[in-house]
Write the structure tokens for this entry.
Amino acid sequence: MATLNVLVLVCFLYVTFLFAIAFGADRAARRGRGTWLRSPVVYTLSLSIYCTAWTFYGAVGFAARSGLEFVTIYLGPTLVMIGWWWTLRKMVRVGRSQRITSVADLISSRYGKSNLLAVFVTVLAVIGTTPYIALQLQSVTLSFATFAANEPTGTELPSQQSIALWVALGLAVFTILFGTRNLDANERHHGVVMAIALEAVVKLFALLAVGVFVVWGLAGGIGETLARIDASPIAAWEVSGSRWVGLTMLSAAAFLCLPRMFQVMVVENEDEGHLRTASWAFPAYLMLMSLFVLPIAAVGLDVLPEGANPDLFVLTLPLQEGRDGLAILSFIGGFSSATSMVIVAAIALSTMVSNHVVMPVWLWITGGSAVMSGDLRNVALLARRISIAGIVLLGYLYFHMSGGGTALAAIGLVSFAGVAQFLPALMGGLFWRAANHTGALAGLATGFAVWMYCLFLPSFGPSSALPQAVLDHGLFGLHWLRPQALFGTEGMDPLVHAVMWSMSLNTIVFVTVSIISFPRPVERLQGAQFVNVFEHSGNTAGWTGGLAQSEDLLIMSQRIIGAPQAQALFATAATRQGLAGYLPEPSPDFLQELERELSGSVGAATAHAMISQIVGGATVSVEDLMAVADETAQIMEYSSRLEAKTEEQERTARQLREANQKLTQLSVQKDAFLSQISHELRTPMTSIRAFSEILRDTRGLKAAEKSKYAAIIHDETVRLTRLLDDLLDLSVLENGQVVLNSQTGHLDALLDRAIAASGLDKRTFRIERDRLAEDVMLTTDLDRLAQVFINLISNARKYCDSASPVLKIAPKRQNDRLLIDFIDNGSGIPTDHQSMIFEKFSRIGETKAGGAGLGLAICREIMARLGGDISYLPGQSGAAFRVTLPQSPDTAGSTASA
């Protein structure tokens, strides 16, 4: 007999193997080598998350108890994949175009980005999925108990509660490690998906192996197996038509609405074309999973003693025949089925809780400011990790409270009926333009209440969650309010009864309230985008961009999606608008693009609210109203042409306006420079002349006085020479007459040299550096590059107005470039001055320090000659400059990754 120690060791090795697979897939995806991760085969196998411990263990038990009823659990998803393929495609397209992160996000986004609706859906999803998580924990604990019962020494296991708790803790740790590595839910969890695809193969192979053993090893072949099925009680049972139809529809609805299915089917989808493969491959997978269910059930009923748990026939048949290896393989298959479900469900639900509950509460606690709310990335990631642990713990508590004695199929059906309540709002949102927020909320609340009263609370057992008096006599003693005979419908199957009333009332209330209430404008716009998603790929309402501050938006974005991604987004938008730098104009188009980007990390409702705090409100554009009104194709085409021309004219006008402003500023600065340069030249020359005349004409000067006057003349000469050198240097650089002296050296040594040349007092000015990141070999003109560094460090020393000035130097790699950021903790440079600081004659902080305003202009020309760039980086804690250098492949390898 297989010992428990071997079983635990095998579990440990299997989980370690999954860790390695997940880690390797994540690493390959980050390095751009994971094209195989995006194949339709991996996508199809990831859909096998539908096949949990219920289908691995419980389907056999279902067949042993109820005959062919188990087929309905496979039939519903098969009908959806084959007959409703176009609906799935529409869901995927909506998810990609609107950057949807969960089923709650899709429903709330469709109905006016209502966070209240998102919270309600999230709570319902968590409660509805809790029994399913408990089902997985129960299957694993029963498996361990089965092995313990077959130990010849009569080994006693810890209690089922203890085993379930340890399993829950292990699953929570794995999910946290590989399910919360990225904040953006639209950044695919390649490691988790690959692990699930592998588990799909393992559980299919294990179930087929047990089936082959039962048919040819125990029954004696196909003919004998069919004879045993005919002779077993399974052949005599008749399936009720209403229950058959009800279970088929329920499984189809759950396949569309389960949070874990939405996660792998919509959020993790890389390509709509993968649905074509999945539409036939996934039904084939389900067919293989169900192929040996009846033979195993029939042989188990025939061979095993009366009273044996049918849910565990997959394990007990190999164990009884002494096939320990096959039994362990079967256990691993069931373990895979349970763990994959819990992992993906916890990821999906934690995203919903973080985006729709934690983030709005956090913004409210911090005063409702999207700009000053701190680093939201850490808050969101921490919220998701805590949510994962809490969700798995809820599953354990349900298992603990229910006693773990219910059949696996019964627990699964309770969960199916709960999440099926999303279906009316979901389908209505995708296909009915008149559906609105009020109707969706009313329908969900009605269906959820009926499901809780008629099915969920009674599932805990008599007198547990509901008093026995309520079960027997109805709520408040009203006979027609009995949970399992609502409105006097007696004699119905409890599950069919609960599903019929909850879904019927849900749909009726949803449709009725939507008809009698009028949707808000944003709901009508979202309705046009969702229902006609293949015609309208843009977003919804426009924004009043004139009220927005681009730098505030950049600061907020950096705290949500990270500095590199936010800066790249803003820089691309600025370039598209014909502007330089990182600050585009907050046009409606850009704000819509930004909202879509942020919604991938914090959900559509939260992203919309955060931008609204800065922008101040949204407006309905003429184009949006035309989309809602569904004007003729000719008018829409004409409008599109006019819009394209208008956008081109606006872009040209924007560029001309910026050029005119820059020319005006340059003219003013040039006049100021001519006045200043005259003063700068005249002052040292006047001093030199005056003190030279003193030395020439005054007799009897002491040696000390002569030395003093000579020193003044020397200093003024140096000052004059420096000014002339700067002008000459800039002229040489601009004319391309400079000859570069390419050298090889380390970045850290070059920074040491620049800091020493800057003459900093380390007691009053602190520099923060990362020596590991500075271990980079450079091949460039080191002297010219040092000149740039010296200028930036000296400027920080001169102009940083902090009481305790600090300069942070942060190198990092980005593809084939090396970025070196110089960021101080001062007040920074005003937004309206940032576009001019690299122009000639421009001066920063004229009241604090002198200079001709040529330093940064020289730096710009030097970096251009070195093949790099220097730019101002807005949205940081103070003044921030970024030096960009090209990096050859042979030197890139020594750079520390950011």
